[in-house]
Design a protein that fits this description.
Rossmann fold; 3 domains; alpha/beta; 6-stranded mixed sheet; 4-stranded antiparallel sheet; 11 helices
């Protein structure tokens, strides 16, 4: 289980996370939505321990990773796989070496066993006989799928996805959404994705959390989010450009109006 408690992070004068709270249960597929630049990727980096918070806790299976030594943190990180926004493949390595990188670097497993594991992981994402290719020889969609194969090759308990459908066409994006859901169920891992693509969010998620002004302002199933009466959520999921979403004062006015209406009921 992942527990995020009162998490705060600022960069200079900009407060990105503001006493953020979120619980993600083991085996759950959680998607964090929000506008570009709202702090989704920053939150993801806190979950894997790449950024230290100003205050608050990130608890992974009972261990607060904000207060552990680097050696213990590195051991905890081995429980994670991550699909980066741009796939982040090593250009100088082959596809096979990219996928098997964690096994090559952190285990004594034989190269034959690694090759077989790599082959199976690539097969799971629909790729065959590409082990000897270099990343430069792959399409954008293939790079994403190789990145996904690498994310699962070390058999993680938790997989993080940073904008998994960014940079690919809609058809390939749909394929990647299906793969994420299928692999999450088949491998019984906890999945956390960040995206501003609602089609992707609805397809992947068991739960959707909306991040706005440093806090989670809504959390629910895809149907609950679709039917939310929160004006910020409604505007975001409908991609409504009419109205002051970039205007904090305007949004506050909408929220105050909603709260007044709720108070009268």
């Amino acid at each position: 289980m992942i527990e995020i408690i009162n998490l705060c992070k600022s960069f200079g004068n900009k407060k990105v996370l503001d006493n953020l709270n979120l619980t993600i249960h083991s085996g759950e597929k959680t998607v964090i939505i929000g506008r570009s630049g709202c702090g989704k990727s920053v939150l993801l980096k806190h979950i894997i321990g790449l950024i230290n918070p100003d205050s608050g806790q990130v608890i992974i299976d009972g261990v607060d990773i904000t207060h552990v030594r680097i050696r213990q943190l590195n051991e905890i990180r081995k429980q994670f796989g991550m699909l980066f926004q741009g796939a982040a493949l090593f250009d100088s390595l082959s596809v096979g070496e990219n996928v098997g990188f964690m096994l090559l670097e952190h285990t004594d497993v034989s190269k034959d066993v690694i090759r077989e594991r790599v082959r199976k992981c690539l097969a799971l994402v629909g790729l065959k006989d590409v082990e000897n290719l270099k990343p430069a020889e792959l399409s954008g969609g293939m790079k994403k799928r190789v990145g996904l194969a690498r994310a699962i090759c070390f058999r993680p308990k938790i997989v993080l996805y940073d904008e998994p459908t960014t940079g690919v066409d809609p058809i390939m994006g749909d394929i990647i959404n299906d793969l994420i859901r299928e692999l999450s169920d088949k491998l019984e891992v906890t999945s956390v994705a960040v995206t501003h693509d609602m089609k992707s969010a609805y397809k992947i998620a068991d739960k959707i959390a909306m991040l706005y002004e440093g806090k989670i302002i809504a959390l629910g199933t895809p149907d609950e989010i679709k039917n939310s009466d929160n004006p910020i959520v409604k505007q975001f999921i409908s991609a409504d450009a009419i109205g002051p979403m970039t205007d904090a004062a305007g949004i506050k006015e909408l929220m105050d109006k909603k709260w007044r209406e709720d108070a009268r009921r």
